[in-house]
Each structure stands twice: as C-alpha cells, then as structure tokens.
C-alpha cells in the first residue's frame, strides 16, 4: 500500500510539473509525439526541460523521504529488479512492488488528467532523429546512473541526505534524457500515462528493457566494487 501511494504521489507531482512545462511549447511536444515519422529534429526548450527535470527530481526526493520507512520508497520496477538481483528483496516481493508501482503510476496519471485542464501530455516518446536502439541505450545508461547513485547513497548511510542525492541523480538523468526519449528511467512512469490515454507506441518496450538492462548493469557494477573493496 505504501508503495502504491508513494508512486501515485511521485507520478502526480512529476506529471503535473511536466504538464505545466509543456503548455507554452505545443509545437515542440507535437514534434516529439511524432518522433518516428522522420520529422525535422526540433530544438530543445531548455527552460521546459529544466522544469520537467526539477519536477521529477524534487518529487522523487520528497516522496522517498516520506515513504522510505514505510515501503522502502522504491517507486520503480527497475529498482525492484535490482533489489531482487542483489538479494535485498525476494522475487515475489519484487513482483508485488512492481504491480503496486504500475497501479500507482496509472492512478497518478489519472489524477493529473482529471485535475488539470487540457490533454495529458506526459507520455515518453522518441524525438525525431532518435532511433529505437539509441533510445534503448540512453534509457539503460541513465537508469544505471540513478541506480548506482541510489545504492551508493543508501550504502554510505547518508541518512537525511540520501533522498536529496537520489533526487539530484534523477534530475541529472532527466536533463539528459527528456528531450531524446522522454526521460523514463522507470517502466511504471511510462506505462501509466499510456494506459490512461490509451496510446502505445511500437517501441514502448524500450522503456521496460532499457531500465531493466540499466538495473543489471548497476548490480554488476556494485558487485564489482564490493569485490575489489573500493569505497
């Protein structure tokens, strides 16, 4: 229940911020929505990208602070997979958390759509010029960054600074990824709006496989660090 509520709140505030950021830049978001049609690559709206990245980073930091002691503050199936791979969670618990996270994302997207006027413009799509393969590896490497920072922050017993460090990692990942892939880094974040809107792109799978690959890479990196006793 804590993971469901936490993911709902995380997605709601992140989606709300994304919706506000996209309002004055309709032409840019329209170009992103038709990324696979070979349109001319649009220029990034840097102020909008910064607003979106801040929305996701702050929303994650705040909700981790609230729910870390309740459900762990995971909010991401890729992180659930990583925790299962290192033995911190059983596979059954990881599956249950993933279901709660997906339902939370759907709820967050639904609340955002119901409360805010206008279309729900928070889907993750590939911008013109970004191939499916590039999008897959962008999602993989950015997810690896966030998960590595999260494991380091928690492993270092950073205490009250851990949520801030993790939020900043997501902020950085979103700054890089939003323009090219929509900056998912989280399968639940992508599938929630798609279900609410009822639209799925043929490359939706990259938002599951990319973060999953990033989680595996982060686990391998963490085990290597432990093996050489480097901190």
From TrEMBL:
It is a multi-pass membrane protein. The chain crosses the membrane at residues 95-116, 128-149, 161-182, 202-225. Keywords: Membrane, Signal, Transmembrane, Transmembrane helix, Transport. It comes from the Eukaryota. One of its GO terms (molecular function) is water channel activity. Residues 1-21 form the signal peptide. Its main location: membrane. The keyword Nucleotide-binding does not apply. One of its GO terms (cellular component) is plasma membrane. The keyword Transport applies. It is found in: Membrane. Pfam families: MIP. Belongs to the MIP/aquaporin (TC 1.A.8) family. PANTHER family: AQUAPORIN TRANSPORTER, MIP17260P. This is Aquaporin-like protein. The lineage of its organism: Eukaryota, Fungi, Dikarya, Basidiomycota, Pucciniomycotina.
